[in-house]
Amino acid sequence: MLALHAQDASSGLKLKQLPVPSLGPEDVLIKVYSAGITPGVMKLLKMGQSAVPTTVGHEAAGVVEALGENIKDGLNVGDRVRLHPILSCGECHQCQLGFDSMCDEAAQMGFAKFGERTGLYAQYHDGALAEYVRVPRRFVDRLPDNVSFDIGAKLHDAATALRVLKLAEVTKPNSTIILTAPTGTMGTVTLKLVKFFPNIKKIILVGRSKERLESIQHLTEVETVVFPISAPSQDSKPSSGPPGESIPGPPQPSPIVRQLRELAPEGISAIIDYVPAGPTLSQILPALATRGTIVHMGGSPAPLQIPLVFIMSKAWRLVGNRAHTRDDAQEILDWLQSDQLVISDLITHRFPLKDAHRAIDAIETRDEHVWMSIIEVIPEKV
Ligand SMILES: [Zn+2]
User: Fold this and answer.
1) What's the 51 CA to ligand 1 centre distance in angstroms?
2) Ligand 1 centroid to 322 CA: how many Å?
3) pLDDT tens for residues 35-72?
4) Which of 45, 84, 173, 194 has the fewest CB within 10 Å, making it most exposed?
5) How distant, in Å, are the alpha carbons of 26, 102, 193 from that of 139?
């Protein structure tokens, strides 16, 4: 079978002919129709978070090609399914609480290990940018008839955006939130989901390009305001006090913060931060309301340039996240099945598997507007 494969952490991804995986008694072989592609695969490989050699790709939907001998729960060959790529032990404290993506053994097939222990990932690290993928039965969901394979694959990102919105905990009616770097997959699908969070009445879209920010405003009925900002100049000082142990005074609001406060006089209830690098969060953070929440999901290596005393005195919550839970994915599936949620208009790019490198280039250079990108392994007949 054809697969997008990494031999090691440094030599890049190559299309390769590999044997179709053989099945254990609890395994399902999925014939992949659609697979998602996201930035960051190469970064994680280089960071040593991924098993190698491996096949990459963690978002996929297709049909059941074969079943392990112990699977007798009604799943049949030919059934339409999606892969839930977040492996977990199913037994630990986090799993019992429903936070399976926080399991010590949590890992994403075709992507990387997140938890401390390797668990199922050692056996099931091979992902779905391939003609076939082998998946433990526990991580296979049936796909409703009205949900296309493309959407079945990209449901993964929608479920993560749902988790992020839940973590923002916007409980105050008529709240304003900020969405940073909102013009990619996560930002656009977050806009689609905001309607399920009725306390959010206004969204300030913070990014570099006014034109790209304006191009996503129609994706939600909720009021949006575009707020293009540029990086601070080299000699501008961060909004922090003097170094050392002394307690700094309140920061002088920058022009950016003053403008944000004019847009939201009662303060920003939450910042959902999808910025993958750079100082944006530090630039806008002083506009956050007392008891406001920051959910960081951009995976940025940049430090937060603000004295901790402001986090204390403003009672801010800074929340991280890792993917989504099984329940989040099911909630998205239910909304898609009932047509309460439509995200098919977010798919801007489709590539055949043989052009996977072109797909990765498009998503990494972002020369074009890429919202959701699909690898069509087998085009679905409509
Ligand atoms: Zn667990």
Assistant:
1) 20
2) 14
3) 998 777 777 777 777 888 999 999 999 999 999 999 99
4) 173
5) 11, 16, 24
Give residues whose Cβ lies within 5 Å of ion ligand 1.
88-89, 92, 95, 103
> How far, in Å, from the CA of 154 to the mean position of ligand 1?
24
Written as one letter, the residue type at 382 is V
Q: Which long-range contacts (CB under 8 A, 24 or more apart) does 355-360 make?
A: 356/4, 356/13, 356/15, 356/37, 356/129, 357/13, 357/15, 359/37, 360/13, 360/37, 360/41, 360/42
Ligand 1 centre to CA of 192 (Å) is 30
Domain ranges within the chain, ordered by starting residue: 2-143+343-376, 159-319
CATH 3.20.20.140 fits 2-143+343-376, yes or no: no
CATH of domain 159-319: 3.40.50.720
Look at residue 173 in the predicted model and tell me its pLDDT. Answer: 97
- If you measure from the C-alpha of residue 85 to the centroid of ligand 1, how many angstroms do you get, rounded to a whole number? 14
